[in-house]
Amino acid sequence: MSDTHPSPTALSRFTSKLPTSVNGTIRKLSVASLIGQSVLIVTGAAVRLTASGLGCPTWPKCTDGSLVNTPEMGIHGIIEFGNRTLTFALALVAGLMLVFLWNLRKERKDLFWLAFGLLASIPVQAVIGGLSVLTGLNPWVVSLHFLVSAALVVFSMLLVNRTFGRTGLASTATGPVVSKTVRQLTAVAAACSGLAVILGTVVTGSGPHAGDADAPRNGLDPDLITRVHVLPVYLLVISSVIVLVLLWRRGSGDALRAGAMLLVGAVVFQGAIGYAQHFTGLPPLLVGLHMLGSALLLAAGTNLADLVFRRKA
C-alpha cells in the first residue's frame, strides 16, 4: 500500500525549525535593531561633521566605476561608504527578524508588521540617502534622510518592548494603569520630542556642518530657527518632569517610573549638549553627541508613551 501523504518540502522543513514563541534570538535581534538604528544616526552625523557627505560622489555606486570606496578617496570615502554599509547590515537584521517571526505572523501580528515596517523603510532610507548625494547634499533632502532614521529608532523601540512582553499583544496590563493627566502629559512629551527633533534638522540645515564645503544651506537665520527649536524643548522638559513626579507620588509600576526617569535623563542630556554646542560655536564632537542624544530621546519618549498607553489584546 503506497503512502498517500506528500513528503514535506524543503520550505516546510525549514519553517518547522523556526520558533513558535518569542525566544531569546528574537529579543536579541530587536535589541540589535534598536542599537543599530541609533548607531546609524551617529555615523550619519560623522559623515556630515567630517565633510564626508560626498565621500562617495555618486549613488548607488560609490564612484562611477566602483561599488565600494577606493584608496584614492581617502578617509572621506571610508566614512561615507561605512555609513552606507551599515544600512545593509540593518536590513539583514530586519530580514532575519521576519524569518524568525514567520511561524508567529498570525499570533503576533504586532511583531511581524513592525519588523516588516523596519525592513521596508530601510530601502526608502537608502534611496533618500542617494538623492541627498545626487542633489549635492540639499539640506531638506538630508533632513528627510535623518527623519527616516528617527522613525526607524521609534519602530525599533516599539519592537523591543513587544518582544520583551512589556507592551503589545503579549502585555499583561489590564485596564487603565495611569491617570488621564499622566496620559495627556505623556502624549505632549512624545509630540514635543518629535517636534524638537524635526526642528533640530532645520537648525542643522542652517548651520555650518553641511557635509561638504560646497553643499548648500537652507538660508534660514540660525539664531531665529534655534529659538523656535527650543520652544517644544521647554514644553518637553516641563511635561516629562511632571509625569515623573506624578508617577513617583502615586506609586506606579517600576517600569513606568523607570521609563519616566529615562526620558527625563535623556532630555537633560540632550538639553545640556544642545546649549553647550550652541554657545561654543558648534564643535563637531558636541554636535555628534547631540545627534546621539536625539536617538536616546526618541527611544526614551517612545518607550514611555508605549508603556503608558499599553493595552492587553
Descriptive overview:
The chain has 313 residues and is mostly helical. It contains nine helices and no strands. The protein has helices at residues 10-15, 24-49, 74-100, 109-134, 139-163, 180-206, 222-249, 254-279, 284-308. Helix 2 packs antiparallel against helix 3 (74-100), helix 2 (24-49) runs antiparallel to helix 5 and helix 5 packs antiparallel against helix 6. The model has no long low-confidence stretch (mean pLDDT 89).
State the gist of this model.
By secondary structure, the chain is mainly α. It has helices at 10-15, 24-49, 74-100, 109-134, 139-163, 180-206, 222-249, 254-279, 284-308.
Highlighted features:
mainly alpha
Rg on CA atoms, Å: 22 Å
Tell me the count of domains. 1
> What's the overall geometry?
flat
> Into which percentage range does the β-strand content fall?
under 5%
Whole-number mean pLDDT: 89
Q: How many runs of DSSP E, i.e. beta strands? A: 0
List the helices and strands and how they pair.
Elements: H1 10-15, H2 24-49, H3 74-100, H4 109-134, H5 139-163, H6 180-206, H7 222-249, H8 254-279, H9 284-308
